[in-house]
Here is the input.
Amino acid sequence: MRIDVVTIFPGYLAPLDEALVGRARRAGRLDVRVHDLRRWATGVHQAVDDAPYGGGPGMLMTAPVWGAALDEVAGSGPTGAVPRLLVPTPAGPPLTQQRVAGWAGEPWLVIACGRYEGIDARVLADAARRMPVEEVSLGDYVLAGGEVAALVVVEAVSRLVPGVLGNPASAELDSFAEGTGGLLEAPAYTRPERWRDLDVPAVLRGGDHGAVARWRRDRSLERTATVRPDLLDALLARDGNAALDARDREVLAACGYDPAGRARPAAWQTGEVAADGARPDPGR
Ligand code: JD8
Here is the structure.
């Protein structure tokens, strides 16, 4: 897979030389290229921004610079190859594992990182004449530019590219991954068995794989019901009641989640963790 990232801050993408993505690049499994937008800026000041029409705060990135950059980058592939252009913006649909999985199946992505107040809207309209264009948002908070989103997208997509992850199975068990029904992962433990008078749950040390799987499912359901009940709603909307067995319903009822939507645990949105590692239990 090839991924091109265009930005006025190429140094911001230096983390892509590290860890999983860095190793995959050096192993030739990923072709990640970072381009400095100013290469296509003209004039002594190499300006890339100008005042917004209609007034308003700040500056916008200009169309001619981005047009020239995307023409060259998107035109630099094998004959006939067309990349998918991804444009991070707080005004975009949210990034999801489903979108990531779709992009991981593509041969070539280009990510356009905006700064200032954003990019002249005609850049995307023009690009869409020649290639698929998608906007994407990391979430409902405001960043100063698209580079952080580019880092997130490149790492999330790279994990799903064959040969990049040491053990591809770990991607299958990801939270939000198709296979896990979109539930949050259960807590996990490793040695030492006892640490600061906190013990690894006995069931995980007992060797009964069925009991371990059941324990993890219960913790997954509890955590999802109290932290992200919306994910359970989505699971039930997608897979219907068949998604839950009798034990699942017991666990969910115990923590105040009612599949029929009549009851919701007091949303545990704080993210706080109690001293014993437990999550606040709104149902009890
Ligand atoms: C791209 C410029 C800054 C945004 C005025 C602050 C994504 N989840 C997200 N939050 N923010 C971004 C994002 C912010 C960006 C750009 C993405 C390009 N800015 C602008 C509009 C308000 N400034 C993002 N993905």
Observations:
- The mean pLDDT is 91.
- Residues 88-90, 114-115, 117-118, 137-139, 141-146, 149 surround JD8 (CB under 6 Å).
- The longest helix spans residues 209-227.
- The chain is about 35% helix and 10% strand.
